[in-house]
Amino acid sequence: IEKVEKEAAKLGKGPFQ
Length: 17
Known about the structure:
- The chain is mainly alpha-helical.
- 59% of the residues lie in helices and 0% in strands.
- It has one helix and no strands.
- It comes from Scolecobasidium tshawytschae.
């Protein structure tokens, strides 16, 4: 799921955080 990781990176929080 690359999109989720990239979107999460923009928000400054990881998908597993």
